[in-house]
# Entry
Amino acid sequence: MPLRDEDGNIVKWYGVTTDIEDRKRAEEALRRAEQELQQLVDFVPQHIVVLDPGGRLIHTNRVAREYTGLTLEEFQSLDVRGMVIHPDDLKKMRAARERGLAGSDPFELDARQLGKDGIYRWFLWRYNPLVEEGRVRRWYVSATEIESRKQEEERVRQENVRLEERTRIAQELHDTLLQNFLSASTSFKQFSVNSSRRAALYIRE
# Structure
């Protein structure tokens, strides 16, 4: 820092040296730990994504990169969700993700994701925060394919729709038959009454 005279001219410089060795060691230890974590998650047979507190992508593992056909640099620089999430699911996913990242609790969401083979499949994303001193430091996200589960849910839903339709048709048939029966019963009663009257008249005659 400069020492100036009354005219503003520098007459001396003062310097202060601070030992930051401990800080540098801590930063290096953290860097090595993150590198080791990235190498570790590459072996997990699920899609794994690491986000900063605001949701910016830091790392994605080998399984996720191979599934989408994108590089880590493309994951970090592109609007990946806009590229790989089904258009019908994108708005819902973005809204749920924004709400979840605003807090510090685990959350999950599902959507269809595009593979490099050009096929959309259902995935379940689970977001788990790393919280230190009351603040989210990282978000760890795992994605599990649930295509078979979704297909089964859709099969059950369609079965329920068909069952409801059959029930509705059966009810309509029942109501129609009942109405016809009542109508026939009423006609038969009226016929019986008229026949009895005609018989009585015939007997008197």
Summary: Helices lie at 21-41, 62-68, 72-77, 80-84, 87-101, 147-204. The longest strand covers residues 120-132. The chain has a mean pLDDT of 83.
